[in-house]
Design a protein that fits this description.
The protein folds into 3 domains: 87 residues, Winged helix-like DNA-binding domain superfamily/Winged helix DNA-binding domain (Arc Repressor Mutant, subunit A), CATH 1.10.10.10; 97 residues, 3-Layer(aba) Sandwich (D-Maltodextrin-Binding Protein, domain 2); 102 residues, D-Maltodextrin-Binding Protein, domain 2 (3-Layer(aba) Sandwich), CATH 3.40.190. 42% of the residues lie in helices and 21% in strands. It is built from 11 helices and 11 strands. With 316 residues, it is α/β, with parallel strands linked by helices.
């Protein structure tokens, strides 16, 4: 087959995405086209090759033997194109670095610390975009992302930035009015601010061996940033990540209500394509954020100087 007989690129993309997901619908969502368009592209490729690439059984699809043999070189070709593009498009450690972060992490932890990165790397201009969805690095123009999860992302590199230690906090005015609780059980009588699912407090009390306090009462928020604002406004006690409220605690805007804390299964991870690991801008940001997270965690422990840390509790 000569180069003029190569299959259409869009048909190959549809084949690779469908083979990866084993779903026409999921492939269509990834490629931003309709399932019908994906099916037509696959049919075009099968006609071009003269062989079927998928078997359709009931409502599922599976690769034929030919499809299984065809997939690795097609996937490798796309990877080589991607690697070559990165090498050509990013020749030096200058320009814009686009960082995608969850809204709460961006506002409560990342943005207040960015000046130190800019001081260390004045030739790199950061562009921070907030999103809770996993970035599509091939289409969104995102260089690195910070996501809350277990750190397992297929085809992506990830490094743990922050382990999510959960602490009970409240505004000083509320503590002054109600008095500091002597035990975690004392918080059962406090007004409380809740997460969207209204489960965090029940799990926290359960981790301390405290009997059920009944249905969760008080306001709830589906955004941790809004929840933090409600706590700062004195609307109630809340459970929030220790790392992102460390400055508020140190500067007296919040008070930690109990020495007891517990760790979520989830953590914040720095995520980026595997082929971006050695890109100068990505390496610079990775080194900075991991160093900053480590430094802040050590500083927070030193400032707190408090023992009584509880065991690992259930995940929020």
């Amino acid at each position: 087959m000569t180069e003029h007989q190569l299959p259409p690129l869009n048909a190959l993309r549809a084949f690779e995405a469908t083979a990866r997901h084993l779903s026409v619908k999921n492939a269509a969502n990834e490629l931003c086209v309709t399932p019908g368009a994906v099916s037509q592209l696959i049919k075009t490729l099968e006609v071009h090759l003269g062989v079927p690439l998928f078997r359709r059984v009931n409502r599922g699809i599976f690769l034929t033997d030919v499809g299984q043999a065809y997939l690795p070189p097609v996937r490798n070709a796309f990877r080589q194109i991607s690697d070559a593009t990165c090498r050509v498009a990013v020749p030096e450690d200058t320009g814009i670095l686009t960082v995608s972060a969850t809204p709460f992490f961006a506002s409560a932890w990342l943005v207040p610390r960015l000046k130190s990165f800019q001081d260390a790397h004045p030739d790199i201009d950061l562009q921070v975009v907030s999103s809770s969805a996993l970035a599509d690095f091939s289409r969104d123009g995102v260089d690195v992302a910070i996501r809350h999860g277990l750190g397992r992302y297929v085809g992506l590199s990830s490094q743990r930035v922050l382990t999510v230690e959960i602490v009970a906090v409240a505004a000083p005015a509320l503590v002054k009015r109600l008095g500091m609780p002597e035990t975690p059980a004392g918080l059962t009588r406090w007004p409380r601010v809740n997460d969207a699912e209204r489960k965090a407090w029940a799990l926290w009390f359960e981790a301390q061996g405290i009997e059920s306090t009944g249905p969760a009462r008080g306001p709830s928020f589906d955004d941790s940033g809004l929840l933090l604002k409600a706590v700062l406004a004195g609307q109630g006690a809340a459970l929030l990540p220790a790392a992102v409220v460390a400055d508020d605690l140190a500067e007296g805007r919040l008070v930690q209500l109990s020495d007891v804390s517990w760790l979520e299964d989830f953590a914040y991870y720095l995520v980026y394509p595997e082929n971006s690991h050695d890109r100068p801008k990505v390496a610079a940001f990775r080194e900075w954020i991991l160093s900053e997270a480590s430094r802040k965690a050590a500083s927070s422990r030193k400032r707190a100087g408090r023992g009584g840390k509880g065991g690992r509790g259930p995940r929020q």
